[in-house]
Amino acid sequence: MERRCRRLILISTIALVCCWSQPGFGSGFALYEVGARGSALGGAMVGRADDPSAIFYNPAGITQLPGLRVMGGISLIIPNVDVVTGWGPVTTGTHMQDQVFFPPHLYLSYQIPASPLWLGLGVFSPFGLGVEFDSAWPGRINNIKTSISSININPTFAVKITDYLAVGAGLDLMVFNVEMRRVLPLPLLGFQDTTIKAHSLGCGWNAGLLVKPTDYLSFGISYRSQVRQQLKGEATFTPGSLLNADAQGKIILPDMFFAGVMFKLIKPLSVEVGFIYTRWSRFRQLEINFNNVLGPVSEEKNWRDVWRVQLGLEYRAADWLDLRAGYAFDQEPIPDQYADYIVPASDRHYFSFGPGFRWRKWTLDLSYTFMFMADRAINNSRSVGVLPSNYENRYAHILGLSLGYRF
Question: If I label 310, which of 44, 109, 134, 238 is the partner at 20 to 30 A Cα–Cα?
């Protein structure tokens, strides 16, 4: 019976991971919802890195996991965004279409017997975006709908060099999908409702180091490389369907530096502080080429590099129960002069908590995060179709669940 249950859970988890998701409420359109425990801790998992989600946070951490481990789950992201556009007393309020997103995750780690070598595999969504407005709203020339989905397959290995030092590295194989819909004003042809769908496969790598001199202190650093995506797809135009054509573009997804220090104030209470530095300055331009009479659509982005600061506390209340809480502050990478409605965002605050349960070889982690963004006024954007705007009432409820088993 237990074997059948394990198989059912594994099959269900793999099915969830094969689903596409288009959230987008991290810095730019980065995602950090890669495990419920990490979400409950505000992402402060780089220095502790002691469950299978270490494959994302710090691959050296899987050396703390003997035997074979598997963990899978899902997050639910429920966002809210209002945009007020216009000048003076003549303004229009628009509510972003209600949506629910569900980025999944799956991890496996395995220690090779009588060896200092560990192997791992992670499947998760590191980038995503989901924004949709009514097709007649005032900002339709800039954006009606944008969705980005990604699935990253991350095979990993790690080596325990000494009792207190470990290193790990992996390969990123990332499938990337983009859908963009907007109204393009074209010479002689007037306004065209344009939808572009494209996809690509890009490669990158990640590496990490974990130093743990005692059970009361550990330090971790890791790096995830940039990933170049060469997008290919198609563009459809309404009413000018004769313009339908193949479309191509490219995007450089940013590299990230992670660091964290975990220490125990008392035996059952551990605290981690850390940061993530994301080089969004790689994203300088959005250019799309059509294989018809239309020239390329090119827009400057010139995003800036940003910091995410995170704090997580975990308290072992009982042998079967952990209590967790966290906070993170995420900087917005988009300067006012390049602001748009594709990512109507500003600095973000995350407040999170959640329990972790243990029963025999099973673990169940739950999390809840309330994310809110400060109001933001945009008055001088160079982006096409962006009116003087105020971003208001922007927040998200984020729920997480991860189920793990130790073989």
Answer: 109
Q: Classify strands 90-95 and 348-359 as parallel, antiparallel or unpaired.
A: unpaired
Instruction: Say if CB 192 and CB 171 are below 8 A apart.
Output: no
Tokens matching residue 188 = 């002689």
Span 83-109, pLDDT tens digits: 999 877 788 889 998 889 999 999 999
pLDDT in tens, 385-407: 899 998 888 899 999 999 999 99
Neighbours of 171 (CB within 10 A): 14
- The token pair at 71 is 């963990």
Q: Quick one: fold of 2-406?
A: Porin (2.40.160)
Alpha-carbon distance 105 to 53, whole Å? 9
Q: Quick one: how far is CA 191 from the chain centroid?
A: 34
Determine if the pTM surpasses 0.85: yes
Q: From start to end of 267-319, where are the E strands? A: 269-278, 285-290, 297-300, 306-318
**SS3 call for 11:** helix
Q: Left, alpha or beta for 369 (phi > 0: left; psi -120 to 50: alpha)?
A: beta
How far, in Å, CA of 292 to CA of 358, rounded?
Answer: 59
- Read off the pLDDT of residues 210-221 as tens digits, 9 standing for 90 and up: 999 998 999 999
Residues 6 or more apart from 327 whose CB is under 8 A from it? 42, 310, 311, 349, 350, 351, 352
CA dihedral 20, 351, 366, 9 (to 10 degrees): 10
Q: Where are the beta strands (DSSP E) in 134-189?
A: 145-160, 165-186
CA angle 310, 315, 321 (to 5 degrees): 120
Mode of pairing for the β-strands spanning 165-186 and 145-160:
antiparallel
Quote the CA–CA distance of 276 and 25 in Å, as a whole number. 15
Cα–Cα distance measured from residue 55 to residue 35, given in angstroms and rounded to the nearest whole number: 11
Helix, strand, coil fractions of the chain, as percent rounded to 5:
10, 60, 30
Residues lower than pLDDT 50 in the chain: 1-2, 4-21
225-260: per-residue pLDDT in tens? 999 999 999 988 888 777 888 888 888 999 999 999
Where are the domains positioned within the chain?
Answer: 2-406
Beta 389-406 vs 362-373: how paired, if at all?
antiparallel
